[in-house]
UniProtKB/TrEMBL annotation:
<protein>
    <recommendedName>
        <fullName>histidine kinase</fullName>
    </recommendedName>
</protein>
<feature type="domain" description="Histidine kinase">
    <location>
        <begin position="1"/>
        <end position="152"/>
    </location>
</feature>
C-alpha cells in the first residue's frame, strides 16, 4: 500500500505532544513536504514509530529533544528517530534487538516495559524489506535508523 509517511510521523508526534510538553522535551518532525510515498502497512508503521518515540521519551531527560526525520535516498526512504537522552552502552548495542533484552535491570524496572518493542520493530521493518539499526553514545543520545521501500506511485 502506498503510504504518506509524513502524515504518520505527524500523527505520532501529535499523540506524544502532551507528554513531551509535560516532560519539557521538544519533539518535532523534520521532513520535506514532497516526500515520495512508501510501500508499507500504515498500522504497522505507526506501531514501530510509537515504540521508538516512547523509548526516546522514556530515556530522555527534561530539556532534551526528539526529532523524527525522513528523507528519500536512492530508492529507499530513510527514517530516523533521534533523541538527546541517556544513550545505550556499547556493550548492550549488539543485543538490543533481542526479545526481552533491556539495558541495566535497575534502570529498566524503573522505566517499565517488557523489552519486546525493538524486536517487534525489527520484525516489522524487515517484513517490509527494510533494515533497522541503532547508533548511540552514552549521555549524548540515541538514533534509530530504518529504511522502507518507496511506493511506485511516486510523490505523495
Ligand atoms: P516495550 O517496548 O516492550 O514496552 P522496552 O521499551 O523496555 O519495552 P524495547 O523497546 O525493545 O523494550 O527496548 C529495549 C531496551 O533498549 C530498553 O529497555 C532500553 O534499555 C533500551 N532502549 C531502547 N530505546 C532506547 C533509547 N532511545 N535510549 C536509551 N535506551 C533505549
Ligand atoms: Mg519500547
Amino acid at each position: 500500500t502506498p503510504v504518506n509517511l509524513v502524515q504518520i510521523l505527524d500523527d505520532v508526534a501529535d499523540r506524544f505532544a502532551f507528554q513531551c510538553r509535560q516532560q519539557e522535551i521538544s519533539l518535532f518532525v523534520d521532513t520535506t513536504s514532497s516526500l515520495p510515498n512508501v510501500c508499507a502497512d500504515p498500522d504497522k508503521l505507526d506501531q514501530v514509530l510509537d515504540n521508538l518515540v516512547s523509548n526516546a521519551i522514556k530515556h530522555t531527560p527534561p530539556k532534551g529533544m526528539i526529532r523524527l526525520e525522513a528523507a528519500s535516498a536512492q530508492d529507499v526512504m530513510q527514517v530516523k528517530v533521534v533523541d538527546s537522552g541517556m544513550g545505550i552502552p556499547p556493550q548492550d548495542l549488539p543485543r538490543i534487538f533481542e526479545r526481552f533484552y533491556r539495558v541495566d535491570k535497575a534502570r529498566s524496572r524503573k522505566l517499565g516495559g517488557t523489552g519486546l518493542g525493538l524486536s517487534i520493530a525489527k520484525q516489522i521493518i524487515e517484513a517490509h524489506g527494510g533494515t533497522i539499526r541503532i547508533e548511540s553514545v552514552v549521555d549524548q543520545g540515541t538514533t534509530v535508523i530504518f529504511t522502507l521501500p518507496l511506493a511506485k506511485e511516486g510523490i505523495a
